[in-house]
Amino acid sequence: MLLLGEKDIQKAIHITQITDSLEHAYKLYHQKQFVMGQRMQLSTGENTFLLMPCIAAESIGTKIVSVFPDNIETPVTQGLMILLCGKSGQVKAILNGTTLTNMRTGSLGGLAVRHLAKRDAKIIGLVGLGAQGLHQLTAACKERDFNKIVLWNRSRPKTEAFIEKLKLKIAPDIDITAEDSLEKLVKQSDIVITATTSKQPVLPNNQHIYSGKLIIGIGSFRVDMREFPEALFKGASRMYIDTLDAKNETGDVIDPLKNAWMAPRQIIPFSNVIVNKVGAINRTDERPVLFKSTGMALFDLVAALKIYESAVQRNIGQKVYL
């Protein structure tokens, strides 16, 4: 059995390799070549515990995750990933689930940029400067040649430390600025990413500022969470979701359907884009395009398998014999 901590994972693989592997995961999802139930969620107040098992690609994976939004000294999202052989049931590896989650979720946003963003997108905005926001920008900057990043966070003291970490992960010539106004952030950005656990919409309820933009929602994963405002749903041409379970899991999909702000035909599995089942997006249409991710165990399994294979090949990690 191989133990892979944070530094091991970072040595073993680059985030673009995770992004590429998730393209394969979407194909498995579309072809239904997996076994996966809806993830189990237990909540106590603002805190959530999740159990996410899946079988695919001759492997078995189970991720155990805790999400504690008020954490300051420790990460908001923490966990472990257990990877087993699908033929023998033998445990092959235990991975740092926090690092795995951050990298694969960042890569999901990166894939949305790869397939949905305009080719000439130059400015990207981020709302929420946690660990997930850092990985979102890291992955996104591998998909487009941005010249500017605009940041907003409710806690301004956190911004400087975030910028210093971000500079280590992206091209040095990208300008990074912080905005006090969310409306100003949206207006100047070609792509906007929200990475919060807010229960109330974090973006302005002004339909006119979203024309032609790609809006990526990463943070809300519970029915009582929502990052997108009503006006954004009403003005959008379509919303891509990474899993059909999102229709039952997040307020960012439940609310617009329940209130008829969007029609069911406008909610499209993102796997349809990956396998070319839907045509190319008409980027002359000035209505915004939405991408909403809640994640699923299949992504974790495929990403963990890719990390494990790379670590074995490069002799990274600690071997443990039980």
Automatic annotation (TrEMBL):
> What's the protein called, per UniProt?
Ornithine cyclodeaminase
Give the E.C. number(s): 4.3.1.12
Supply the alphabetized keyword list. Answer: Lyase
Q: Which InterPro entries match?
A: NAD(P)-bd_dom_sf, ODC_Mu_crystall, ODC_N
Lyase as a keyword of this entry, yes or no, is yes
Q: Does the keyword Lyase apply?
A: yes
Q: Which organism is it from?
A: Siminovitchia thermophila
For molecular function, the Gene Ontology terms on record are: ornithine cyclodeaminase activity
Which top-rank group of organisms is this from?
Answer: Bacteria
- Provide the transmembrane region boundaries: none
Instruction: Output the Pfam families linked to this UniProt entry.
Output: OCD_Mu_crystall
